[in-house]
Every structure is written in structure tokens, then in C-alpha cells.
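Progress narrative, work stream C.
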Amino acid sequence: MPELLLKQYTDCQRNTINRLYAQYFLCLTLSMLNTKALRKEQTEKAQLVIRHDVLSASFRPEFIAGADVGFEENGTITRAAIAVLHYPSLELVEYKIAREGTVLPYIPGLLSFREYPALLAAWSQLTLRPDLVMVDGQGIAHPRRFGIASHFGLLVDVPTIGVAKSRLCGEHAPVGEEVGSCQPLIDHGEQIGLVWRSKKRCNPLYISIGHKVSIDSAMGWVEHCMKGYKLPEPTRWADGIASNRAFFRQTMQKSL
């Protein structure tokens, strides 16, 4: 809404009006979208996802990255963070944050189209090139087998793994309470991931193929990147950077 008209309202009222306008324009965008075409694109691109290891069993990466996406300004700004860790020390060596105007409203099953522009912007800023990326989200554990980990992996042509905190589709047997307990995630008779207890008294993680990695290797790399927290270090750092969490702020202060 024009600033001249907003001046007659209180700050609280102006914030409410701006939020409603943002939601209105996102809904308007949704009404103009051909969501059927986007779903068709997902189905077609899912066929291009490589579900086996392209790296040899003896390969040891130098850098492993984590990627996380969030939203600001009532969803009108997409924020992506990529954290690059040295392997096997898992020490943070580089990170980038990108903020882009949100190009798509929230549509279940189509989140990758909403998230990947900011991820690509953050990726383009990196001076180091990761050998493997763990993405906070689904890979092939998606109704059309094309979540953000697969979408991003295909775009940047790098092995990726989906590390999600919740289930999007599929069913699984109860996961034991012990750390390391695991169950296959099955959807329409196909295994699309693993449900893995990474820490006691925490909900399990949903691990899936992103691109250019097998499910066994995906699980193995996640295990190699654990340091006692619920999340593997790459996505834990990406989440911490994106959300400016206390451990990230403390790390930055120590480096000054």
C-alpha cells in the first residue's frame, strides 16, 4: 500500500496492512500459476535423478556442505544459508547467506520451486566447492520423488542428500528409542528413504537420496557427520547460520 495512505494508521495497523497485502499478492500469484505444469515438471525431472553413487567407495571428500532455507518478512523474502565444513574435522570453513524475493506462495509438494532460487544465489557466492551437500528437506522422499535435495542437486550437479525433520509421504514401522534405530520409509511399495533415530528423546530424521548417491551411502555420510546432536553437522550449521542461533554467534565472536 502507498506510504501516503499508511501514514494515517498506527505502526501496529500498518504492519497488519502490509502483511495482508503481502498475503494478497502471493495468493494472486498462486491464482496465475499453472501448478499442474509444475507437478509435471517434477515428475519429468525426477527421472533425471541419479540414485546410485557416482563417487567411488574409496573417495573421501574435502568439503561437505549443509543447506537450509527459511522465510522472512511474512514469507515475501526467501533466505538460504549454505555452510561448508572441512571433512573429516567437520570444522566450519565458509558460509554464505542469500536473500531473494519469494517467487512462489506456499504450495504443499512444490516447495522446491519456492526455495531453489535463494539456494542458487548462496551457492554462487561460495569460493569453495563442496563435494557433497546435505539439504534440510526431502530428496526422493516426495510424492513425485523430487524434493528440494533432488531439485538442487540436479541444478548444481553435485551429490546431495535429503535430511528432513518430518515426513512428507510414505509409511514406516515404529522406530526404536535407541540411537541408531532405523526403519525403511515406504511409499506405494517403493523404499524412498530411511527413518533414523539420531539422538535419544528426539524425533527421528528422514534420510533420502538427493542426487548421485545411494540410500546406503546417504545414511553412511549422515552418520559420519554426527557429533552428538540431533542433526548432522552440515545441516546443523546451516540451520544455525540461517537462524543466527546462539552457538553460531558465539563461534563468530571467538573468531574475532
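Work stream C, second folded protein:
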Amino acid sequence: MSEDESQQEQVEQISWIEWHCSIDGHEFLCQVDHQFIRDNFNQSGLKKQFKNYNEALNMILEESPEPKDLEKELFSVVYQQAFDLYGLIHARFIQTPRGLQMMRQKFQDRIFGTCPRVQCGIQPVLPIGLSDELSVSKVKIFCPKCEDVFVPKGQRSAHATNTKGCRLNLDGAYFGTSFPSIFLMNSLKDVPELGPQPFIPTIYGFRIHGLSQNANLRGNQAQNHNLNYQQERLQQMGSPQVVPKKKISQKSIERD
């Protein structure tokens, strides 16, 4: 191999994390910093879950694999564990300021998709896991406007076949059950001001009396629920309570 070819190969070499996150179907994942992964505190409780923990961790921190490595049986075994290990570390990373910033950019770019409900008006969604344990459920999407959970677009076509051949085949534990709540608490501007408007059925433009009343009732309930939700968020993220000054009695003045 010539010196020029060696230099070109070195330039094209990327990290395992960058390679892993660029795979089709891994768009929901962000690139976790190496420093965060190396911190023993962020690895707490994970080692006992993996048989080849050290090998998987080393793979995550190394460069991307060579094409010939992908054909090795040992690589496949370690890679699956590295995949899950990275996912669990990823679930912790996206709750940090740095991770929230990365996920907010994906949210604003609608990488996670939009709510399938027409009345939500193409509201951007957030990834969520139905469990913090591995192999329980695939990742789902949470809509901040209607506050409901849906199957992502990449899973719908294969949902009836138990996600076999599914493009978006990420485990829900890679994001965790708390991520949407933590994200919205730290970014109140991304919380929709109003809930979804209910669909009001009509016949030739005229509202149906009984159905329209039910629709209006649901709309009022949704609006009240959304206002209560906003107030709770503001109370949680608002200014601290002012502690009243302690009154000084006449006796304490005389004692001094």
C-alpha cells in the first residue's frame, strides 16, 4: 500500500459511534461523547447486564469496523451487546444538558417525525420507551400536544409481523420512559400552548346536534387539561417561593 493510499484510508476512518449512528434506521440516536462513556459513574449498574461487557465497551470507543470484520461471528456477538450497551448509556446521556441540546435539534428538524393525528397539526414528536428494561418494547413516539403515544412510521409497515424487517428497530430502553417529560420540563417553549382541536362532524356543513355537543365537550376538557398541564410545568420550573420575613417581637427588642 502506498503512502497516499494509507493517508486517504486514515482520513476516511470514522469512530464506531459515528458509524453506528449513521446506519439507516438509527436516526433517532445521537452521538454520545467519549468522555461521557468513559466516566465510571455513567456506567453504574450496566456491567452485570452483559456477558462481554469489556469487549463491548472497547468496541464502542474504537474506530468503525472494517468490512471483513462484519463477516466474523465473534463480531456479531459483541456488536449486539455493544449496540445494547450504547443504547443504555445513550438513555442517560440524553438527559444531560449536552444530550438535551442534541435531541432538541433533532426535535426541531422533525427527525423523530410528527404526530399522526390530523388535529395535532403536524406537531413534532419525541421518542419514548414503554420500559427502561431491554427487549420489552421497541421505541415509540410521544406527542406533546395530545400527550398520546404512537408507533413510529418506520415500524408501522412491519408492526403486524412483530417488527421483522422493520427499518426503525431500536429498543425503547435506548431512550427510557422519562425522556419526554425531562425534555419538556427543560424546554418550556417547546410545550404546545393549546391541545388538539376536536373534529366536529357535519352533514352538508351543518353540525349534528348530539355529536357536536360531545365534540365541544371533549374540546373544553382537552383545553382545561392543557391549561392545568401548563400551570404545573410553570410551577415546577418557575421562580422559587419568597420566604416571608420573620416578625421581630417587642420582647426580643427589649431583650437585646
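Confidence is low (pLDDT under 50) at residues 158-165, 239-256. No further action is required on this item.
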